[in-house]
Structures are given as C-alpha cells and as structure tokens.
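Continuing the batch. This is chain 6 of the set; chains 1 through 5 are on the previous pages. Same settings as before, nothing changed between runs. Recording input and output for traceability.
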Amino acid sequence: MTEICLVRHGQTDWNLNHIIQGREDIPLNETGKQQAYDSARFLSGEKWDTIITSPLSRAKETAMAIAEFTNIDQIIEDVRFVEREFGEASGKPVSEFHDHIYHDNVVGMETNELLIKRAFHALQDIAEIHKDKRIVIVAHSHTIKAILHAIDPIKVPFQTVLKNACANYIEYKDGNWKIKAFNVSEHINS
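Output for chain 6:
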C-alpha cells in the first residue's frame, strides 16, 4: 500500500487578503511560516519516506519545514503539482471571480478537466515510482482538490474550501485510491 499526505502550503498575504494566486510566486507570510511548522510538527509523529513539492516558494517553504522535522534530506520538486493557472482572475479579489471559477468560466484559466488530468496523472506516477512508500506532497488548494475530487467527487466536491496547511490522507492499494481523511487542520495553531 502506498500512503500519501497532501499538504496545502501555509498562508500568504494574498490568502489573507482574499486575492487569487495561481502561479504567482507569493511567499509565506509570518502566519504561514508558523502554519508550516505546525504541520511539520504534526507530521513528525509519523514515518515518511519522501517529500515532493510544487516549485512555487510558498509550497517549497512549507516542504522545507516538514523536511526539517521529519529528518528527510531531499525534497523533490515536481512542476505538475503547481497551482492552477487562473488566467485573467490571477491577482484579482476572490469576490470578483468566485462564481466564474467554480463554473469553470474564466478566460485563460486551466479548466477543471485539465487540472484534474494533470494533477491525478502526477499522483499516479508518484504512486508507481514510490510503490509501498509513505510520501508527503506539498501543493496548492486547487491542485489538491482536483486530486481528492478525482478520487471521490461525492466526498470532496470541487467547491470544497481547503484550509492553509491542512493535511489530506489518501492511500493506493490494489489499483484503487481511497481518501482516509481530508482538510485535517486541528494541528494548526495560527
């Protein structure tokens, strides 16, 4: 069985101010750094084999905190776990584009279908390469939601809001994916 914990990055100023951030490289703010360490302490109670991260700095900073607490020396960057391209909505207030995003109707935005295909294909590759291992993947809200939605669209509709630095546990066994827990955030103190 392959076990994966999908961790959303900690908070950025754009998260705090409800600004849509797609592939813009916005770093963690002070709260986000604390959230990254909260997640790292939480995950340090378990044995992990590998950490994979999106190349964006907010995810990499979160992954580095987790690596420090789990004694994993190498972090693997995988561009396929980058956040969704939000097209003309990027850098704009969430309130202006919320409904358009959830109806898959924004000019230049990566569609739900393409996002799910990209993220789930990456997940399948990781499960094959790291068979029977325990892996942490640090990524972004829409990327993680796409994966969870692909596994169980009833349990995790695309409109689900994932908290910053939340943990989402999935497993792969005998050709089947299963969500064990999602949006776990009780460990976040900030």
